[in-house]
Structure formats: structure tokens, C-alpha cells
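Worked example 3 (structure in, sequence out).
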């Protein structure tokens, strides 16, 4: 039996259920935390598959939320709404590093452009999260 392996430059995965549950049941509710756990398991399946194929160290990963939340909304400027989880890992990135600078959702595109070694759009918003890269 032959096996076909597709190597991609970019893959976007959006576990949208967490957002739906956050609005319906509230952020940090038990239903929301359960949805996060399921999203975490899905990411684990992707990583396990890459590991099994011997490809884990060939890829970079950026994991982020589209927004924060509070109660059943994300319409205020409080920290819980404005801050998002943002995690990056890969062969050219520091392992185990805790990001010290503020990271905005706007920083993802320019950081991904650097990871992919392409020039970011000149009118881009956001900045490269420089501190995550190896020297």
C-alpha cells in the first residue's frame, strides 16, 4: 500500500465551537471549558498525526483565539475581552519561552509572514512577535 504525504506551507484550523459555546453559555462556564478541552484534543490529534509521520519538527504552529470574552459577550475593553491566548511553536522558534510583550491578533499575520519567509503587506497592521524567534 502506498502513502501520499502532502506538505503544506500554511494550514488554518478554526475550532469555532468554543466561540459558539462562549456566547451561549458564557466564557469560563463549564460548557466553555469543556469546548476548550475538545479543541485541545483536536490539536493533539493533528500533532500526533504529524509525529507519527515523522513530520512534527517540519512545521510551525500558531494557536490563537479570535477574541477574548466576558460573561456572554466580547464587546467591552476589559482585559478578559481584549487579551487572547497566543501560542507559537516550531523549528525556528524558542521552546518553552513565555512571551513577555503584549501580543495582538494583528501581530499574527506579520509573524506568520516571517515564519514563511515572505514579505508582509506594506500596509499591514501589527508587528512581528520577534521575541519568539531563535537568535
Amino acid at each position: 500500500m502506498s502513502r501520499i504525504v502532502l506538505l503544506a506551507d500554511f494550514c488554518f484550523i478554526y475550532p469555532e465551537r468554543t466561540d459558539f459555546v462562549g456566547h451561549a453559555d458564557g466564557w469560563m462556564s463549564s460548557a466553555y471549558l469543556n469546548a476548550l478541552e475538545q479543541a485541545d484534543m483536536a490539536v493533539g490529534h493533528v500533532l500526533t498525526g504529524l509525529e507519527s509521520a515523522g513530520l512534527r519538527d517540519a512545521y510551525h504552529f500558531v494557536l490563537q483565539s479570535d477574541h477574548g470574552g466576558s460573561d456572554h459577550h466580547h464587546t467591552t475593553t476589559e482585559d478578559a475581552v481584549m487579551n487572547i491566548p497566543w501560542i507559537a511553536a516550531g523549528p525556528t522558534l524558542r521552546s518553552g519561552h513565555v512571551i513577555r510583550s503584549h501580543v495582538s491578533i494583528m501581530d499574527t499575520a506579520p509573524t506568520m509572514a516571517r515564519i514563511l519567509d515572505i514579505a508582509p503587506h506594506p500596509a499591514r497592521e501589527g508587528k512581528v512577535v520577534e521575541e519568539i524567534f531563535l537568535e
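Notes: The beta strands are 61-64, 86-89. Residues 37 and 65 are 14 Å apart (CA to CA).
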